[in-house]
Amino acid sequence: MNIKRNIKFIMILNLSIIIFLIFLLNSFLFAQENPTKSILVLNSYHKGFLWTDNIVKGIEAVLEPEKNNIKLSVEYMDTKTTGYETEYKKQLYDLYKYKYRNRKFDLIISSDDNALDFLREFHQDLFPGVPIVFCGVNNLNISNMIDRKIFTGIIELHSVKGTIDLALRLHPGTRQIVFVVENSPTGTYLWNQIKGLLKYYEDIRTTRIDNSLSMEQIEDKVRKLPDDTIVYWGTLHRDKFEKYYAFEEGASRVSKASSRPMYGHSVQILPYGIVGGKLLGGFYHGQIVAEMAQRILMGEKALDISVLTEPQTQYMFNYEQMQRFGINISDLPEGSIVINKPSSFYEENKILIWGVIVFVALQMLIIISLVMNITKRKKAEEGLTESLQRERFWADIVRNAFVGVATGYPDGRLGMCNVAYQKITGYSEKELQTIDWNKILTPPEWEESETDKLQELHRMKKSVQYEKEYIRKDGSRVSVELLVHPRFDSNGNVERYFAFVIDITERKKTDEELQKHREHLEELVNERTVELEEKTKKIEESQQALTCLMEDVNESRAELDVLNKQLQAANKELEAFAYSVSHDLRAPLRNIDGFSQILLEDYSDILDKQGRHYLQRVRAGTQNMGQLIDDILSLSRSGRHTMDKKTINMESIVREVYDSLENELKDRKVDLVVHECPPALADSHLVKIVFTNLLSNALKFTRTRENAKIETGFMTEDGHTVFFIKDNGAGFDMKYADKLFIPFQRLHRAEEYEGSGIGLAIVQRIIHRHGGRIWAESKIDVRTTFYFTLPKS
Question: Is the dihedral of CA 485, 490, 495, 496 positive or negative?
Fold first, then answer.
């Protein structure tokens, strides 16, 4: 036994010396290949400030200074408590100039605005030529203010929209968002940012809770929120009594009181009551800036690394709040980080489990080595029987190993088998020792391949590894992977085998499923390729057809230009004719009207009643004819007027036109409702003519109503703004609506309502000249509504 102890001590001592020498050699080679890099981290704020501390931790997590031979120096400017005045800045300059006068840095990392401002001003004097990577900077225009040959980095941006979009997806029934944002400068900046995003959520109601309430009032308000509401925590450090609340206290109180889930944009409040969101955190910020620093240390230039202007945020969630509001982990975006999640037994004991596995494996290797050594010395160890060797071997090593272990002999017999091996085969140890493993356990189709492997083992005199199947006791098959190690006798012949067996049935099933998915994916790719080729062919045919169509369109356009010129000439001739006719007719009409008036006034005592009636009808006819000529000229002018399009206020024009119709409002009770209307791009003079005609018609056809009502406004239809004028007048039969805008067409008798039938034709021509359209809807003796469109401002 003393000999055994001495041999064991010598083996352990030799192994320790070899490991020590290997360690020294690796350390020497690493030091030669990786010279020390010197990095300065300059922080704007003080140590202990959570944001700054997390940035430094993120930098250290990526750079791993001790492992990667990096000397990391960390400075804190402490400007949050001390301020950043000129005198303090000068003192910092003097301190760093003296402190680092003999120090050369390979790279500088700065956090937040004041550190970057300091380096922009003094880096050429203090650290000439040293590349600088910044983070935590809020100035979106910083790229235009730095020397890009020296500076690069990350701009600090919150993902407010990303968090809101995620919350609406997790709560699809949301119709209201309550924002908790105080009226401080930071809160005002955040609220302006939020208001700029509300255009994306027009169908969502928004409410703001600020520091005009006490904390108790805020808690009471969120406690009574309806089920269609979510809460967004922005910032709130003081209530209306100026009582200060740290972010963890304020967020925790509001979250506990709220009946609805609360989201936010900062990692700092994640443990204190928010469900989560797309969060900005100092640790992740530090990791990103450290990765950019690594690229520069590897030889990449700062100029070639773009300044990151997108939010560097992560999806992060609080498992406790998810459970509270019924949110499943499967609902979260891929790659989300979840805190407070209950750990599995493996996660809680991972180090212990792997320690045990490594320990067992090491023990197995050590014992196998000892067994081989003992085998060489067994002739010298009298009185040690083979039975005792097996008992000690199996009792101390593999009886409870998690992999199957068995010994076999070239004649097909099995020796000792551990519990795991018995479970794999379905036989007990005694049953296994009575069967021929080569005939009973091995399927016929596997005999040849296994024989080849064992022959290779005999030939190469080393372990072999291969896969096969076992036939279990119940007749089922199990897929296994074996590592077979030979043991040789003194003559160099295989005395026995040591087999280490792993059940890989589930792995094989997974591989088969994966192969099926691969084959299916290849089929889908082939199908999509064929479809793409067919679609490409169709697109090429469509392009040829489109080319032919464009040639036809160009020919038609040339013909249309000729027709337009002919039409313009005809219109000019028609306008000249209308003007000439109206001018030539006005003189005789004025004579007829004037002489008729003289007869009625100077000779009325000579004329009888019927004569006077005839003269009055003559005068009415001439006046009507004069009005008709005026309307014809108006219709002509509406097409000739040179349009001066500009943005106009529709409400102002409606009220101006309405006030100009004072004569038609005498002794009448008319309720005019003018709704808010958006501006339009149009000619104000022509639009006044449109409203004059439409309002006049509305007043005319509501004449019989004791309480007339006229309403103007707008609505949105298919993305277009539609203006309307509605009245509760006489109305008309919709089957005659197609005649409504035809000149001289009337849908009411002249005895009931005066007019020439020109007004609506003028309105239609003006609307069409603006590229719009006009139509009407009516119900007899109930209402009439005219709709028209104009270009948007």
Answer: negative
Instruction: Flag whether pLDDT at 85 surpasses 80.
Output: yes
For residue 785, CA distances in Å to 507, 698, 726, 776 come to 74, 9, 4, 6
Residues composing the chain:
793
Residue of 298, 279, 270, 293 whose CA lies nearest to 59: 293
Report d(CA 480, CA 424) in Å as an integer. 9
Cα 512 off chain centre by = 36
Residues linked to residue 263 through DSSP beta bridges, in sequence order: 232
Q: Give the pair of three-digit tokens for residue 368.
A: 């196998």
- Tell me: the pLDDT tens digits for 585-614? 666 766 676 767 777 777 777 877 777 776
Q: Read off φ and ψ for residue 414, nearest 5 degrees.
A: -110, 145
- The proportion of the chain whose per-residue pLDDT surpasses 90, expressed as a percent, equals 28
| Residue 291, Cβ density class (10 Å: 0-12 exposed, 13-18 middle, ≥19 buried) | middle
Average pLDDT, stretch 91-111?
A: 93
CA distance 19 to 102: 39
- 401 in helix, strand or coil? coil
Pairing of strands 314-318, 337-339: parallel
Nearest-angstrom CA–CA distance, 622 and 313: 82
pLDDT at 347: 61
Nearest to 177 by CA among 242, 235, 222: 222
Q: For 136-140, 468-472, 473-477, which range has the lowest pLDDT when averaged over its residues?
A: 136-140
Q: Per residue, what are the HEC states of 591-639?
A: HHHHHHHHHHHHCCCCCCHHHHHHHHHHHHHHHHHHHHHHHHHHHHHHH
Rounded Cα gap, residues 276 and 338, in angstroms:
9
Strand partners, 783: 779
Residue type, 207: T
Report the alpha-carbon distance of residue 249 to residue 269 in Å, rounded: 10
Whole-prediction pTM value? Answer: 0.40
Residue 24 buriedness (CB in 10 A; 0-12 / 13-18 / 19+): exposed
Q: Which residues contact 291 (CB under 8 A, 6 or more apart)?
A: 62
- The widest CA-to-CA distance across the chain, in whole angstroms, is 170
576 Cβ contact list (under 8 Å, min separation 6): none
Cβ pair 448, 461 in contact under 8 A: no
| Residue 182 DSSP one-character state | -
**Alpha-carbon distance 420 to 470, whole Å?**
14
Picking from 175, 169, 188, the residue whose alpha carbon sits closest to that of residue 234 is 188
- Parallel, antiparallel, or unpaired: how do β-strands 680-683 and 645-648 relate? antiparallel
* Contact (Cβ atoms closer than 8 angstroms) between residue 264 and residue 251: yes
Burial 90-114 (b: 16+ CB within 10 A, else e): eebeeebeeeeeeeebbbbbbbbbb
Structure tokens at 613: 């009636």
Residue 473 near residue 426, CB atoms below 8 Å: yes
Tokens for 105?
A: 């840095």
The answer on pLDDT for 11 being more than 60 is no
Q: What is the structure's pLDDT at 256?
A: 93
DSSP string, 293-350: HHHHHTT--GGGS--B-S---EEEEEHHHHHHTT--GGGSPTT-EEESPPPPHHHHTH
Is residue 158 predicted with pLDDT exceeding 50?
yes
Instruction: For tokens 């057809």, name the residue.
Output: 545
User: How far apart, in whole angstroms, are the C-alpha atoms of residue 40 and residue 107?
Assistant: 7
Residue 478 corresponds to which tokens in the numbers above?
Answer: 């199990």
- Give me the sheet containing 229-235, strands edge to edge: 205-209, 176-181, 229-235, 262-263
Q: State how far the Cα of 244 lies from the Cα of 232, in Å rounded to an integer.
A: 20
- Quick one: which of 63, 278, 72 has its CA closest to 168? 278
